[in-house]
């Protein structure tokens, strides 16, 4: 009997094929037959895992959202382990949602294609909303942590700050996707770093006491 890991790998293979089709040809190009051909497997095997196209699309959307999420969580884990300022960690987390390389440009195109379809597909809309919600929660938690250690003023409300930074991330991603070479002579990566740093500096105005003290031996 095939192992669970084999099933998971096959589902990932199908999700990658869907992502490739959307990135190269758009959402309307995705069919079960084309997905099977792109993945190098049979139509019957695709249908074994996904009974309908909508089920297949939902899984692909969840997969790409999970990939972005995993990178963001790794940034948080590594930054915390190395005792980096919270603002610096959040700059890296926000950058994972920006189309600054081929992988992230593909992910942006795919997620925006899904977001458009989500207007009429409640299951996709739920994934889209959950992705944005988790980013807001990450940022709000970072602001609260910043208040505890001195990077953020104690009277700042984390909730609107999180909404603002999430909106900046989403809007900046759209701008960078339209202008991959940059804007007004400023390279995209430099522009992204400047905008993100300026927005974070408006929230994280202090210095974290936890990271300024020498580590205990």
UniProtKB/TrEMBL annotation:
Start-end of DNA-binding region: 31-50
Residues covered by the HTH tetR-type domain: 8-68
Pfam families tied to this protein: TetR_C_6 (PF13977), TetR_N (PF00440)
Domain of life: Bacteria
Entries under InterPro entries matching the protein: BetI_C, Homeodomain-like_sf, HTH_TetR, Tet_transcr_reg_TetR-rel_C_sf
UniProt keyword Repressor, yes or no: yes
Keyword set, alphabetical order: DNA-binding, Repressor, Transcription, Transcription regulation
UniProt name for this protein: TetR/AcrR family transcriptional regulator
Lineage, uppermost ranks: Bacteria, Bacillati, Actinomycetota, Actinomycetes, Kitasatosporales
